[in-house]
Amino acid sequence: MSNLPYKNPISPIQLLGSQTVSRTDTFGTNFSVLSTGGYMEVYNLSDLDFTIPVGQTGTIEFSGNVIPIQFKKGSGSVFSPDVLTLNSDNISSGRRRLGMLAYVYETNTIYRYTIDNYDSLWSAATSSSGPGGQTVVISDFGTTVKNNSVAGQNLINAWTASTIEGVSGFTSSNARWRVLNTGSSSGGTLSGDYLPLSGGTVSGATIFQSGLSANTFSATTYLNLPVTNFTGGTVSGATNFTNGLTANTISATTYQNVNAVTGGSYSNGIITLSGTGNVNGNTITGLSTITADTFVTGFTFNVSNYDLTINQNNGQSPLTQSLSILASDLYVTGGTYNSNTGVATFTNNTGGTFQVTGFLTGFTDTLVTAFTYNNNTFTITDSRGTGFTATINTMTGLTATTISATTYLNLPSTTFTGGTVSGATNFTGGLSANTFSATTYLNLPSSTFTGGTVSGPTNFLSGLTANTISATTYQNLPVTADTFTTAATFSVSTGIITFNRNNNTPNYTVTGLTGFTSAFTYSNNVFTISRSGTSNLTALINTVTGFTINGNLTVTGTSTVNNLTITGTTALNGPISSGTLSGSTTRMLEVSSGGSVTATKEIITAYITSGGTASNLLENTSNWSINGDYTGTTITGTFQGQKHYNNNYFFEAVADNLFIRLIRG
Question: In the predicted model, what is the mean pLDDT of residues 352-365?
Answer without folding.
Answer: 72
